[in-house]
Amino acid sequence: MRERAGTGTVETNLAEVATKSLGFYRGIVPMACGAVADQDLLRQHREFFHENNTGPNKIINALTGYLANELRAGRIAGGVSPEAVAHIVQGACFAHSFLDAFLGERGHGLRDGPFVRELIRTVLSGIAPGERAAGEVS
């Protein structure tokens, strides 16, 4: 993922990551929910992730590295936390996938394509009104 920095557009790259993440999370939501409900199983998963350098942090770290490279290249706003953005994108994708699994076909009604477009648009533009500087919180 890190090597994608400077190629294509940030919007396209993030949309691709989000789309792939939805599929990934849909596949693991049932297992993850089961693991969280069973403390022994959760401990085993944590040990496996730690010993094999895998699991959710691998995705977050790869996206953080990509965003840090884009930040250095000036392709995203200065003052932005690449790690926070990675957590926002991946957290939203996990939540969307969880809601699909939990609520079923007629769940929250937001299909993947529109969800990804709006997620990435919102991440790239922010939610502050007007020309608020990055990092400025009221």
- Name the shape in a single word: globular
What is the averaged pLDDT score?
87
| Order of secondary-structure elements | HHHHH
- Backbone structural class: mainly alpha
Strand content: under 5%
Radius of gyration: 16 Å
The total of helices stands at 5
Report how far the terminal alpha carbons are from each other.
34 Å
The largest pleated sheet is described as: none
Helix content: 55-70%
Tally the beta strands.
Answer: 0
Low-confidence stretches: none
Would you kindly provide a written description of the structure presented here, covering whatever features stand out?
The protein has 138 residues and is mainly alpha-helical. The protein has a domain at 2-24 and 59-125. The protein is built from five helices and no strands. It has helices spanning 10-37, 39-52, 56-72, 82-103, 112-125. The longest helix is centred in the N-terminal third of the chain and has 28 residues, at 10-37. The radius of gyration is 16 Å and the shape is globular. The model has no long low-confidence stretch (mean pLDDT 87).
